[in-house]
């Protein structure tokens, strides 16, 4: 009974099962470091403001440092009876330094405490994730640079459309990752406001200095409304939303890597280190890593929906429901970090089979649009040019020929605007290199892009 920090108004002990059912300590130990960081800043502020004595604040800070060391060394035994990380730390503090430890919670509540802890934790994880995103971005750029001239089929509807540079294809994913980085910076800046001082919901009667604590903890400012401070979980939702979009990107790349490493495409070879074999089929080399990342996208979407549903219709201010925010958030962080890490390494080691890509790019009349554009430059309206080349392709299908194999006489059956120079336009290189405008697949356009991306 006496172990409970809030036991005063109770005459009966908590039901054992209820104790376990309501406890969050089982999944929030990772907040220990941040809980102590927040508590130290709070204690120092209490001392500076004369709310407790400077000596008392000092004792508390020393005690918290010792508990921190114990946590790092794995020596602190967490107790379910103490419910959550906040009370586990506070109870240990009181055990260690005596009743002065009981002064730490002055002018504070677990409601604003958990809000600050999760923000500090998420901020740190975001900084790690930003590094992981940068690494993946570098791997994609490396792939582009190392295979600058490789031509592959570009697809729409997964049907051969026009030849593109493989480097251009890799840089398309770089664009997605760059937008993910920018989203992550945005949301980090938005939630980097300090909620301590909101108390349970209405603020505190003590003359605290919130701005000092904010600066001490590296926040850009303080939150502006106590009710919102303790009940806002937008930052967790925004993070899961960012993560959903990122995983969607990774799942698209996964899908391509899986297709490309099949015997039917045979465009790439993933390093053995990222694949596994089959227990029955000796020939198999399965692209497990991209498959798993594609699969993990589902749980990240699920986490976003969990959080949105959790917060839906909750009245102000704190509700115990909100304790359910942690597992989806933590799982999302772990999943995103793991996926990004493994992807950056896998992409860096990926081998490209340039010849196979090139052979595939030449199939499917991929330069048909170039013949149409050629006719347009000779004066034919595009709609008619489309018709001319459509008929040419039908003839190719019937005769089993490819566009560059047609004789000039055969070409001229469809339009007498076509002359001998048409052959300059129907090679894969000519098709690719004609698309020079910014954002196009021409070698020079891709090179300009790669130069633009070089760290200055
Ligand atoms: N473990 C709680 C949570 O994660 C901490 C805040 C508890 N506040 C309370 N009044 N029970 O939400």
Short description:
This protein folds into 3 domains: 7-106, Fumarase/aspartase (N-terminal domain) (Fumarase C, Chain B, domain 1); 111-205 and 236-359, Up-down Bundle (Fumarase C, Chain A, domain 2); 363-453, Fumarase/aspartase (C-terminal domain) (Ribonucleotide Reductase Protein R1, domain 1, Orthogonal Bundle). It has 17 helices and 6 strands.
CATH superfamily of the largest domain: Fumarase/aspartase (Central domain)
Radius of gyration, CA atoms, in whole angstroms:
31 Å
Number of domain modules = 3
At the first level of CATH, the class of the largest domain is: Mainly Alpha
Profile the largest sheet. 2 strands, antiparallel
Number of strands: 6
**Strand-residue proportion:** under 5%
Global shape = elongated
Question: From the coordinates shown, what is the CATH architecture of the largest domain?
Answer: Up-down Bundle
Query: Per CATH, what is the topology of the largest domain?
Result: Fumarase C, Chain A, domain 2
Low-confidence stretches: none
Bound heterogens, unique: arginine
Order of helices and strands: HHHHHEEHEHEHHEHHEHHHHHH
Distance between the ends:
63 Å
* Proportion of residues in helical segments: 55-70%
Q: What class do helices, strands and sheet pairing give?
A: mainly alpha
Number of helices: 17
């Amino acid at each position: 009974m006496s172990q409970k920090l809030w036991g005063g108004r109770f005459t009966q002990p908590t039901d054992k099962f209820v104790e376990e059912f309501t406890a969050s300590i089982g999944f929030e130990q990772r907040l220990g470091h941040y809980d102590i960081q927040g508590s130290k800043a709070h204690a120092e502020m209490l001392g500076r403001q004369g709310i407790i004595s400077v000596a008392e604040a000092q004792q508390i800070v020393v005690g918290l440092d010792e508990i921190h060391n114990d946590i790092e060394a794995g020596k602190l035994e967490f107790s379910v009876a103490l419910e959550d990380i906040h009370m586990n730390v506070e109870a240990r503090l009181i055990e260690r330094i005596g009743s002065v430890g009981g002064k730490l919670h002055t002018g504070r509540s677990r409601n604003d405490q958990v809000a600050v802890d999760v923000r500090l934790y998420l901020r740190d994880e975001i900084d790690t994730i930003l590094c992981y995103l940068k690494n993946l971005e570098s791997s994609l750029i490396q792939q582009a640079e190392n295979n600058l001239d490789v031509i592959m089929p570009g697809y729409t509807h997964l049907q051969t459309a026009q030849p593109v540079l493989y480097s251009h294809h890799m840089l398309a994913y770089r664009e997605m990752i760059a937008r993910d980085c920018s989203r992550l910076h945005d949301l980090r800046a938005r939630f980097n406001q300090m909620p301590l001082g909101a108390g349970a919901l209405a603020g505190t009667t003590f003359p605290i200095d919130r701005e000092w604590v904010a600066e001490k903890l590296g926040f850009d400012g303080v939150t502006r409304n106590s009710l919102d401070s303790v009940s806002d979980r937008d930052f967790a939702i925004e993070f899961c939303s960012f993560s959903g979009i990122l995983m969607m990107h990774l799942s698209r790349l996964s899908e391509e890597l899986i297709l490309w490493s099949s015997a039917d495409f045979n465009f790439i070879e993933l390093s053995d280190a990222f694949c596994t074999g089959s227990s029955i089929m000796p020939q198999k080399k399965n692209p497990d890593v991209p498959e798993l990342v594609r699969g993990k996208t589902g749980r990240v979407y699920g986490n976003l929906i969990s959080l949105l549903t959790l917060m839906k219709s909750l009245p102000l201010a704190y509700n115990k429901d909100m304790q359910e925010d942690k597992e989806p958030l933590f799982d999302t962080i772990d999943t995103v970090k793991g996926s990004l890490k493994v992807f950056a390494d896998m992409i860096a080691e990926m081998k490209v089979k340039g010849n196979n890509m090139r052979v595939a790019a030449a199939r499917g009349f991929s330069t048909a649009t170039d013949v149409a554009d050629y006719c347009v430059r000779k004066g034919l309206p595009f709609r008619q040019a489309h018709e001319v080349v459509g008929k040419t392709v039908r003839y190719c299908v019937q005769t089993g020929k490819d566009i560059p194999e047609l004789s000039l006489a055969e070409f001229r059956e469809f339009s007498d605007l076509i002359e001998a120079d048409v052959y300059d336009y129907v090679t894969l290189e000519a098709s690719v290199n004609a698309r020079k405008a910014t954002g196009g697949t021409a070698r020079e356009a891709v090179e300009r892009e790669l130069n633009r991306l070089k760290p200055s």
